[in-house]
Specification:
Elements lengths: L1 E5 L4 H13 L4 E6 L19 E5 L5 H11 L3 E4 L6 H6 L2 H22 L7 E7 L23 H20 L3 E6 L1 E3 L8 H10 L4 E4 L5 E6 H14 L5 E4 L4 E3 H16 L10 E4 L14 H7 L7 H14 L1 H7 L3 H10 L2
Parallel strand pairs: 1-2, 1-4, 2-3, 4-5, 5-6, 6-10, 7-9, 8-12
Antiparallel strand pairs: 9-11
The structure holds nicotinamide-adenine-dinucleotide and thymidine-5'-diphosphate.
């Protein structure tokens, strides 16, 4: 099987590439990535020389390039993760989200259809999406595969649009697609614009810990290696045309996640108990901030046997260790443009 992974130099994509390259030496894995600010080949150092792996620098917005790449390589499968992924950036600049997440996804679908139109047998287009397409929950209930779409940020609206286009290719052209909608991921190689790695980096440098609003928004956190395992299971065993919700069954208020990271890091860094919590700073809330996300992943468990690894504090501790041990990685991604982004986002 020859598989194209898009966005494989990003956070989740790098875990997916690593898993597929190592688990399936008989497959050929190509990683197509534009290397935006979020893409980093250092995330894949350990597999870059593997005989079944190749990196291709390219943009999913370049339709002609995709058509010729697919004609040349004749891929059997696509695992599509390339996207603009940060809600705050989608609020300050939605255009790139429409371009890459919507138009880029349509370009990929078009290139796959071009080479598969005569025979769809054995082919698979896997679109990796988010639970944010379902909107925001109140205190009760969870999102499932039958929840109505209700996206509320430019990011989630762009992902919802791409989900609809993928389903349209399934219904209209009979393309064998699968979609998964996953909750918030955490783990190694996570770009520190997102909550957990940003808080870890700021505690390390004794910088203020920005908590939006009252810190009461709730997210369901899933370990990224569990997500990569779910993608593996769904890619191989998922039923074409179906959607699978992926979640950690692990809901936390933001302020409680931040306090847990503070506690774990005080212990690891030999600081006094309570020292890092002093850095917590409540800042202006995100516009349109979704209150709560939670996933009911029963379908994935009952139909495909997938379950998340627990417990959160142990995996979070392991995650923090990775950032402390990979100082060079963290320093490199938090220099240059990151500093400009940080200034704009937090010191306005
Ligand atoms: P990320 O921002 O870390 O990585 C995105 C990758 O896509 C980067 O390597 C970037 O260079 C690449 N990319 C961006 N635009 C491109 C383009 N035009 N052409 C080619 N490559 C391009 O994102 P992530 O957190 O790893 O998320 C990956 C996917 O999973 C996204 O589709 C996201 O919507 C989805 N998702 C993420 C989460 C999460 O918690 N991070 C949860 C559910 C779903
Ligand atoms: P984030 O990691 O950006 O993921 P998402 O918005 O996709 O859920 O944010 C997780 C939660 O943390 C979200 O409720 C917003 C909040 N948050 C903060 O309180 N402070 C921050 O600096 C960031 C980046 C996020």
């Amino acid at each position: 099987m020859k598989i194209l992974v898009t966005g494989g130099a990003g956070f989740i994509g790098s875990h997916v590439v690593r898993r597929f390259v190592n688990t399936y030496p008989q497959y050929t894995i190509h990683n197509l990535d534009k290397l935006t600010y979020a893409g980093n080949l250092a995330n894949l150092k350990d597999v870059e020389d593997a005989p079944n792996y190749k990196f291709i620098k390219g943009d999913i917005n370049d339709k002609e390039f995709l058509l010729s790449l697919f004609r040349e390589e004749q891929y059997d499968g696509v695992i599509h993760l390339a996207a603009e992924s940060h809600v705050d950036r989608s609020i300050s600049g939605p255009d790139a989200f429409i371009q890459t997440n919507v138009v880029g996804t349509c370009n990929l679908l078009g290139a796959a259809l071009d080479i598969w139109k005569n025979s769809m047998t054995g082919k698979r287009f896997y679109h990796v999406s988010t639970d944010e397409v379902f909107g925001s929950l109140g205190a009760e209930g969870k999102f499932s595969e039958t929840t109505k779409y209700d996206p509320r940020s430019p990011y989630s609206a762009s992902k919802a649009s791409s989900d609809h286009m993928v389903r349209a290719y399934s219904h209209t052209y009979g393309m064998p697609v699968v979609i998964s909608n996953c909750s918030n991921n955490y783990g190694s190689h996570h770009f520190p614009e997102k909550l957990i790695p940003l808080i870890i980096n700021n505690i390390k440098h004794k910088k203020p810990l920005p908590v939006y609003g009252k810190g009461e928004n709730i997210r369901d956190w899933l370990w990224v290696e569990d997500h990569a395992r779910a993608i593996d299971v769904i890619f191989h065993q998922g039923v074409s045309g179906e959607t699978y919700c992926v979640g950690g069954n692990n809901e936390w208020k933001n302020i409680d996640v931040v306090k847990l990271i503070c506690k774990l890091m005080d212990e690891k860094l030999g600081r006094n108990a309570g020292e890092s919590e002093q850095l917590i700073t409540y800042v202006t809330d995100r516009p349109g901030h979704d209150a709560r996300y939670a996933i009911d992943a029963t379908k994935l468990k009952t139909e495909l046997g997938w379950e998340p690894t627990q417990p959160f504090d142990l995996l979070l501790s392991k995650t923090i260790d990775w950032y402390l041990q990979n100082e060079k990685w963290l320093n490199e991604v938090t220099s240059g443009d990151y500093m400009k982004y940080y200034e704009n986002q937090y010191n306005r």
